[in-house]
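Budget justification aside, the reviewers requested a transparent look at the raw inputs and outputs of the sequence design task funded under Objective 1. We therefore reproduce one unedited record. The lines immediately below are the structure tokens for a 366-residue chain.
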């Protein structure tokens, strides 16, 4: 969900010194709820030194009918950090099943004022195209779904984003006003969502399938600054190939039509898909990609993963060229904060075409 090169957090993880509300990581693997806090300390060229904390609260709601099994794990995750460059990032994400899994509530809230980089639009941009900019972001996303049948959920969602206080540090495309959304604005969208979820655990599945199709209709009539449509599809599968060894696959399709601001375009890279590329290195109206990951136990609470992926951004199908296709591969370590609920801290290192990155987070990439 969120990644940085977190030097001290990695050391704390390897030494087993990460803290929870009781002072240490939970050791009672039968617990149905808990709260864990992880200190953050890192350095990047854009932020210099930074300090903060990440926490996750996980729990199970009740089953009040004998015919309904125990609901799957719910969680609320939050992160906050402050940098030597006076930058602040606050982020909260949640996924909550109500009693009997009758309803599913998902969403996120975020405020950030970090600098970023823009390389242009398309799958063939170069490092020389890079230009730096700064902006503030406030966002809210809420998804409400009702269960229909054993594994099928359907409902509606809403997304509100405000991007403002833009500053540019290079005299290139952004400062010239040639890019949609260069001055920021408000994105306000309603949409629908359909989800099929047969996973045995929403945090870290050993078996099952997950499919979700969601839509966002951004419109000035909803109080926004842009008119465009975003369509998103996700398909995940999980198979236990041998005891404790899980083969997981993840495929994604993002399509955007209309007046699409550059900050809302589909992107290749990040901590979830195509690990190894910066999240904003490549962007365009559309993205298609797929990845596979093998997850296996190592020793007690420690595990390991190996992953490989392919993907690309594009405007037209003709833009999908074999010589420009983005690949990703790498591996990582896992530490189980709660073994019975399969709640892991993850550290990954991904390698892409001419780039590589570390990632640190709570919960799996998919």
């Amino acid at each position: 969900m969120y990644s940085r090169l977190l030097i001290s957090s990695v050391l704390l993880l390897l030494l087993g010194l990460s803290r929870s509300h009781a002072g240490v990581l939970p050791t009672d693997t039968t617990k149905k709820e808990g709260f864990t806090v992880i200190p953050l300390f890192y350095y990047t060229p854009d932020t210099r030194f930074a300090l903060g904390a990440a926490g996750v609260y996980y729990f199970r709601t009740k089953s009040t009918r004998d015919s309904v099994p125990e609901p799957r794990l719910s969680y609320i995750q939050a992160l906050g950090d402050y940098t030597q460059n006076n930058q602040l990032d606050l982020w909260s994400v949640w996924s909550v099943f109500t009693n009997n899994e009758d309803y599913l509530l998902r969403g996120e809230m975020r405020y950030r004022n970090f600098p970023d980089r823009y390389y242009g639009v398309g799958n063939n941009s170069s490092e020389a195209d890079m230009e730096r900019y700064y902006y503030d972001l406030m966002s809210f996303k809420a998804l409400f779904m009702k269960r229909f049948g054993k594994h099928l959920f359907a409902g509606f969602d809403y997304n509100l984003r405000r991007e403002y206080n833009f500053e540019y540090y290079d005299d290139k495309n952004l400062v010239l006003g040639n890019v949609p959304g260069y001055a920021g604005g408000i994105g306000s969208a309603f949409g629908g969502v359909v989800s099929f979820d047969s996973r045995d655990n929403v945090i870290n599945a050993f078996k099952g399938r997950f499919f979700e199709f969601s839509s966002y209709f951004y419109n000035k009539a909803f109080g926004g600054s842009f008119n465009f449509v975003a369509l998103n599809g996700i398909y995940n599968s999980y198979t236990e190939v041998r005891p404790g060894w899980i083969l997981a696959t993840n495929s994604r399709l993002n399509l955007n039509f209309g007046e699409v601001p550059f900050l809302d375009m589909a992107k290749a890279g990040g901590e979830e898909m195509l690990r190894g590329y910066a999240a904003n290195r490549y962007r365009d109206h559309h993205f298609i990609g797929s990845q596979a990951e093998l997850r296996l136990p190592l020793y007690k609470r420690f595990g390991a993963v190996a992953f490989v992926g392919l993907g690309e951004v594009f405007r037209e199908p003709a833009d999908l060229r074999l010589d420009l296709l983005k690949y990703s591969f790498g591996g990582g370590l896992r530490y189980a904060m709660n073994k019975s609920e399969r709640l892991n801290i993850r550290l990954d290192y991904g390698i892409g075409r001419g780039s590589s990155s570390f990632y640190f987070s709570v919960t799996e990439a998919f």
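Helices lie at 7-15, 173-176. The longest strand covers residues 131-148. Computational costs for records of this kind are itemized in the attached budget.
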